[in-house]
Specification:
Elements (H helix, E strand, L loop, with lengths): L1 H10 L2 H19 L4 H24 L1 H4 L17 H22 L2 H21 L7 H4 L1 H13 L7 H31 L11 H19 L12 H17 L9 H28 L2
Helix pairs in contact: 2-3, 2-8, 2-12, 3-5, 3-6, 3-8, 6-8, 8-9, 9-10, 9-12, 10-11, 11-12
Length: 288
């Protein structure tokens, strides 16, 4: 039973989809300014749609997953789950998430979540097999969950604050993925995916990744300007956080690059996003 549960959680890409739920709750909190049951319900609803999308992605990529060392032990290529089982779990999660979101919130929140699923499974996944720059339009996927939370809380889709929040998560994903590429490039090439290594060497791609990382750090500094945060102690932590990321990422500008450096920066850009969420959330709660 434990092995089955473990396989299902892996099918749902639990670490990635939990972050989707966190960013949904983040968007909800930034509009409402406080915790309530709606924050939990909206996060769970979007999480269920993300579960469905992740399981569908496993089905779509089961053959290429079998070709990569990083992914060949996933539930479908390893045989721990059957394709039909993955389809049932995906369908169940999709129905549950749909019912939950449409029952409790305005349709726009659900449309944002549904757009994530469609964009990921029908646009980004096929596109990344054809174009090495697919991650740029693909980053829309990570930008939409906080928008869904904002909309569920009653915010408007064109509010400047939510557009900035979406832009921040959009930008953050690009260096996040390209660092993965620098770590696992051989795996991607073995599976037949086009990669930027065919266009740039490691050093060039590392420098391009640094530029995107710098833009991510600088975007965070716009949060007080757009009044996403107030002028408080926690808003003053944002420049420190941006400087920390820039200093960490400066290793990408060195000549002696190694996979160890890429791994370290990859972890730190993820910590950066989590810490930004924590600091901004505390700021919002304390000053509401």
């Amino acid at each position: 039973m434990k092995k089955k549960i473990s396989a299902i959680l892996e099918l749902f890409k639990i670490r990635i989809t939990l972050f989707v739920a966190i960013t949904t709750g983040f968007g909800y909190l930034l509009f409402k300014g406080s915790f309530d049951s709606g924050m939990a319900v909206s996060s769970i609803g979007i999480l269920l749609l993300a579960f469905s999308s992740a399981a569908l992605n496993h089905i779509q990529e089961r053959k290429t997953d079998a070709l990569m060392n990083r992914t060949k032990s996933r539930p479908l290529p390893s045989g721990r789950l059957k394709t039909w089982e993955a389809l049932i779990y995906s369908s169940a999660a999709f129905i549950a998430g749909t019912v939950l979101l449409l029952l409790y919130f305005n349709p726009l929140a659900y449309i944002a979540g549904l757009t994530c699923l469609i964009w990921y499974n029908l646009i980004y996944t096929p596109m990344k097999k054809l174009n090495s720059l697919a991650i740029i339009p693909g980053s829309v996927i990570g930008a939409l969950p906080p928008v869904a939370g904002w909309l569920a809380a009653g915010g408007g889709i064109l509010d400047p604050q939510v557009l900035l929040i979406a832009f921040f998560f959009f930008i953050w994903q690009i260096p996040h993925f390209w660092l993965l590429l620098l770590i696992f490039n051989n795996d991607y090439e073995q599976a037949g995916f086009p990669t930027l290594i065919g266009m740039f060497n490691d050093k060039q791609l590392a420098r391009i990744t640094f530029i995107w990382t710098a833009v991510t750090a600088l975007t965070l500094l716009l949060f007080p300007v757009f009044k996403v945060t107030a002028i408080s102690f926690f808003s003053f932590t944002l420049p420190a956080l941006a400087i920390w990321l820039l200093v960490s990422a400066s290793a990408l500008l060195k000549n002696d690059l190694s996979r160890l450096s890429f791994n370290l920066i990859f972890r730190r850009i993820n910590y950066f996003a989590l810490l930004a969420i924590v600091f901004i959330s505390i700021d919002k709660i304390l000053l509401s």
